[in-house]
Amino acid sequence: MSVSESFTKPGSSGGSGQALRRYKETLRYGLYVIFHPFDGFWDLVHEKRGSLSAANTFLILFLLTRVLKLMLTNFQFISAPLQYINIYEQCGSLLFPFLILCLANWALSTLFDGKGRFKDIYMAMCYALVPYILIQLPLILISHAISFDEASYYEVMMSVSVIWCVFLAFVGLMQVHDFSPGKTVIFLFFTIFGALVILFLILVFFSLLSDAIGFFVSLYREIAFRLY
Amino acid sequence: MKQIKKLFSTLLVMAMLLPFGAALAAEDGFNGCYTYNYDYWGEIIQSPDAYRVDTVLYSAELGLETAMRRPQSMFVRDSELYVCDTGNNRIIQLHRDKSDFSVVRIIDHVSGAEPSGFATPSDVFVDENGNIYVADTNNNRVIMADKDLNYLASYVKPDSNTFDQALSFLPNKLVVDSSGRVYVLATNVNKGLVKYEADGTFSGYIGANQVTYSLWDYVWKMYFTTKEQRSQQAAFVPTEYENIYIDRDGFIYATNTVFSEYDLLYDNAKPIRRLNAIGTDILIKNGKYPPIGDLDWVEQSQVDGPSKFKDITVLENDIYVAVDRTRGRLFGYDSQGILLWAFGNKGNSVGSFSSAVSIEHMGMDLLVMDEFNGSITLFTPTEYGNLVYYAIEQYLKGDYQGSADTWREVLKFNANYDLAFIGIGRALMQQERYEEAMKYFKMAHDRVNYGRAYRYYRKELVEKNILWIVVVVAVLIVVSYVIRKIKKIKWEVKEYERQRVIH
């Protein structure tokens, strides 16, 4: 009996119990993906073994990990000036580039004959964040149990989590779009370039928007002054 | 009538400006406080005054017939203060008796020297035997005289091809070590300090500033400029030091004011150096921030940018104090390079300097000379300042417990003093009270000491609870084993029943 056969689309007929079970299954699938990335990412989108709700959960957990890490890690390893830190800013500074990169990736996938849809790309990227959560959350606890001299263990674990995530994201994009590794590298460069273009467009849009608003505001003032 | 009206209105305007001016004066310091320190985050923290102005000496009060003109340097030997009155070509010797200074003599010539007078002398040094050394800049010599001003020797332009003979020898600052070697900081010499043996022979240079340039600078200069352009540009040359001071152990402290702000932030500029006999910088920097003066370059009316140390002096307990000409401030650092206090201001009021050029110490008292006003300000440590010094001294002597008690006193004055927390923490660690020590180290953000204390604490904790740890681990192993066993049995029973159904 394959796992995918037992699933029905959430909300179609199975009711809330089944939806919850599928959600749990897709969450657990995250564990499978990080240890078997090539099979895992392929099945994630092509066999529908992942779900958007699980992907969202991972993203939220990732942001939560970041914030908790800044706040709760022992001061020997991270001493963030908590008096200046804004949680929304911290989350935004991660979420915004993440979404821009997904968007740029999706926008360029047509040019490169990529098979992935936006949903697939987003899901793959979110599933790639799992090692970060799994390693960094316990590391917060561990940081209180080790001393400054043992910082190298801490740092090694930190880098392992990041490298693992990057590797997963790479494999994920490769499988989602059905690319060869070389093509994925080139594609990634273009994705970064695309993200910069999007940033530039956003900047231009907002500066034009503020100019336009400024124009109408001054127009209103002018009229108001003339009338009174 | 019109005149009276005009006068009245002027007075009115002045009266209106007065409170405004007072408000400005209060704001131009750091948050209105005179003495301050930097916390772990590089933020200014107000502090009680470590020093207060005792007296300010002016030429008229000293009874000098001609006022001091652009004095450049001071030197202290015991309770004698020598002031190098550069603009008047003379050295003034003052004697201190508590807060009173009196003129002992005015030195304006050396008998038996040719020429006997000075031409813009810019530094003076007096050795333990009372021999006087003067950097006689425009006479191109350093002249040495005995205490009765009889000529002994002169140190002139090195007769060596390492010294560019086309340049004139302009000694600017000098120090003499305990065996009579003379180190001269000369204008236009960028090879380091010119060193003379006691008998007057030139014996080389020490402590040259390292040449710093970026790869980009190099590529640009070598491949993208023509020979003509290159000759027009400044070459890559090491910079000269600003001032030097020799401490009681014979190490030369040098200050450097030519650097880029970028270098300063990454501690490549090294504005304060401690040079050993072969000219290597051995200054200890154990603080979170290197000794660079102000971290926060608050823009005031006319000044901005980093601190530029004009002069430096080293107290008996290896605490060094540097004077910054950018903002007229004094920075005191302990032997570990941790900022103890900073105070001072730019201005004309008492305790402010318009152009501080020289700093010296008598015991723990500080003397700062202002070139522009020709005034000398005497600072004496307050109760708070003395406590800090006493705590450091006790610690250096090895009296950790006494030092911790003194630090607790310091904390009553200033609850934001990281050094006090570290001092108390260290004493607690000596008493093996690791958990409390950790608390103090954490308050001071001292991760190295915290880690050390934590390791001992953890060891203690494990040793104390070893029985419980063993029991818990054993129980966990047994429980997981039992659970696995039960599951296996259940599965076997199920399998057995299924087999039975099939058959």
Give descriptors for this structure.
heterodimer, A: about 230 residues, mainly alpha, 8 helices, about 0% strand, disordered N terminus, B: Neuraminidase, 4-stranded antiparallel β-sheet, 11 helices, 25 strands
Portion in helices of chain A: over 70%
Strand-residue proportion of chain A: under 5%
Q: Specify the oligomeric state.
A: heterodimer
CATH homologous superfamily descriptor of the largest domain in chain B: TolB, C-terminal domain
Helix proportion range of chain B: 25-40%
How many helices of chain B in DSSP terms?
11
Number of strands of chain A: 0
Short note summarizing the structure:
The complex is a heterodimer of chains A (228) and B (503). Chain A is mainly alpha-helical and 228 residues long.
Would you give an account of this structure?
The complex is a heterodimer of chains A (228) and B (503). Chain A is mostly helical. Chain A has one domain. Chain A contains 8 helices and no strands. In chain A, helix 3 packs antiparallel against helix 4 and helix 7 crosses helix 8. Chain A is globular and about 70 Å long. Chain B is of the alpha+beta class and 503 residues long. Chain B has 2 domains: 362 residues, 6 Propeller (Neuraminidase); 65 residues, no CATH class. A 6-stranded antiparallel β-sheet of chain B has the order 2-1-22-21-20-19, with no helix packed on it. A 4-stranded antiparallel β-sheet of chain B has the order 3-25-24-23. Chain B has a 4-stranded antiparallel β-sheet with strand order 4-5-6-7, with no helix packed on it. In chain B, helix 6 packs antiparallel against helix 7, helix 7 runs antiparallel to helix 8 and helix 9 packs antiparallel against helix 10. The chains are: A mainly alpha (228), B alpha+beta (503). Chains A and B meet through loops of A and helix 10 of B.
Question: What is the topology?
Answer:
The complex is a heterodimer of chains A (228) and B (503).
Chain A: H1 15-35, H2 37-46, H3 52-72, H4 87-109, H5 118-127, H6 130-143, H7 151-177, H8 181-227
Helix pairs in contact in A: 1-2, 1-3, 2-7, 3-4, 3-5, 3-6, 4-5, 4-8, 5-7, 6-7, 7-8
Chain B: H1 2-27, E1 35-38, E2 44-46, E3 51-57, H2 59-62, E4 73-77, E5 80-85, E6 90-97, E7 100-107, E8 121-126, E9 132-136, E10 141-145, E11 151-155, E12 170-176, E13 182-187, E14 193-196, E15 202-206, H3 215-223, H4 227-232, E16 243-246, E17 252-255, H5 261-265, E18 272-275, E19 309-314, E20 320-324, E21 329-333, E22 339-344, E23 356-362, E24 365-370, E25 375-381, H6 383-397, H7 400-413, H8 418-430, H9 434-443, H10 447-464, H11 466-502
Antiparallel strand pairs in B: 1-2, 1-22, 3-25, 4-5, 5-6, 6-7, 8-9, 9-10, 10-11, 12-13, 13-14, 14-15, 16-17, 17-18, 19-20, 20-21, 21-22, 23-24, 24-25
Helix pairs in contact in B: 6-7, 7-8, 8-9, 9-10
